[in-house]
What we know:
Blueprint: E1 2-6, H1 10-21, E2 25-29, H2 33-40, H3 51-60, E3 64-67, H4 70-74, E4 79-82, H5 97-109, E5 114-118, H6 126-135, E6 142-146, H7 156-161, E7 166-169, H8 173-183, E8 193-196, H9 198-229, H10 233-241, H11 262-275, H12 281-293, H13 296-304, E9 313-317, H14 332-342, E10 346-350, H15 355-362, E11 367-368, E12 381-384, H16 396-402, E13 407-410, H17 417-423, E14 426-428
Parallel strand pairs: 1-2, 1-4, 2-3, 4-5, 5-6, 7-8, 9-10, 9-12, 10-11, 12-13, 13-14
Bound molecules: nicotinamide-adenine-dinucleotide.
Nicotinamide-adenine-dinucleotide (NAD) binds at residues 6-12, 29-32, 35, 83-86, 98, 101-102, 120-121, 149, 151, 153, 260-261.
Amino acid sequence: xxxxxIGTGYVGLVSGTCFAExxxxxxxxxxxxxKVAKLNAGELTIYEPxxxxxxxxxxxxxxxxxxxDLEEAVKDVEIIFLALxxxxxxxxxxxxxxxxxxxxxLGQMITSYKVIVDKxxxxxxxAEKVAAAIKKNAKVDFDVVSNPEFLREGVAxxxxxxxxxxxxxxxxxxxxxxMHRLYEPFVRQGNPIYFxxxxxxxxxxxxANSYLATRITFMNEIAxxxxxxxxxxxxxxxxxxxxxxxxxxxLFPGVGYGGSCFPKDVQALHKTSVDNKYDFKVxxxxxxVNNKQKHVLSEKILKYFNNDLxxxxxxxxxxxxxxxxxxxxxxxxxxxxxxxxxAGAKVTAYDPEASExxxxxxxxxxxxxxxxxxxxxxxxALAIVTEWSIFRTPDFSFMGELMKEKVxxxxxNLYDTELMIDKGFYYNSIGRNTVE
Length: 436
Ligand code: NAD
């Protein structure tokens, strides 16, 4: 099949590459000329495990192309994916200007029947808006389909190639047939493709992300309460998660959810409920709790140092909003570091992949280092913000030699508290007793 993917970011690039991997002819469009030039030069623009191989193979075998020329890209294709940004507007609603702007352009450009697919996360009713925007100028038939994306950064390739399910919202039998042919190779193991109406598909994505954000937030509150009552959230998590009705995944407390999706999607669903005069109380609390949780680690550090970090050197391990990505959008590390700097600390930071992106925010206000141990030299404390695997079994003796004080604030509960007693560290984590 011939496919155009408009927007070549985390979703567009992974989707385009994976569609090419199953034998399709894919042309990815982006209006960022630098990005397209880099991709055309054979260089990936994001860090995503497993993507490099697929990208190299499919470009070499001439199934995957990149361009800035929208009109040329959509000329001969059967399907057009919109993988454009939908950032939060000032009132929390999803900003649809990218999606609708491109939709209007497409109306002028298409010269034969197309299936136009909303891959971006968009509020209920957007498929109708996209159809209306295209229709303004279109002289040919088309169908607009909602096909929300559920991939997770860090495991995006696997998620895309072997999705738990594919959700397709369409009321057109013709479009349904096209989407079925396209996704068939991805669900050969028997996972479902759910066909539904457009509005339900749009809602499914927001409901899924908001539920996951709620689950994390619930565990963060349990963890905060565990600290107060002297319980250990790790034990509680295991005890809860072994119940089949609950399940073990997504029960890890931490420093709040971040990333480019959960914060904005929870906000957008809340805005949808406000617009529809529905008082979605749970979502309000989720946003409120998460806004507090993002500051939990820096508050612990400030408390330890009596609210004065002047002359203190804090090392930070982990900047990406989660491991295995270079994405720092809404990363808890941003809030943590900002608070530490404001209180007078000198901050040295290490991340395996996300430093370059973080430098754009902090510039020379933070000292970024190339190796995890370099951050620790003469540090008064270490703050762990992202649970990269490389932080899980460090050389504690060496760390103790490097650091001025053997003090760790762990926002991801990476280490066993008993072990930290043995190693002689002050160790303060989330929802567990502090090792003094
Ligand atoms: P992104 O910012 O990484 O990528 C968007 C791309 O669109 C950028 O490369 C940008 O240059 C390009 N673009 C902007 N305007 C354009 C235009 N007029 N023409 C062509 N290209 C244009 O965003 P993303 O993370 O890939 O997210 C895209 C959508 O997918 C969002 O709605 C997001 O909520 C949703 N989503 C994201 C994820 C994720 O993990 N990142 C997962 C599921 C769904």
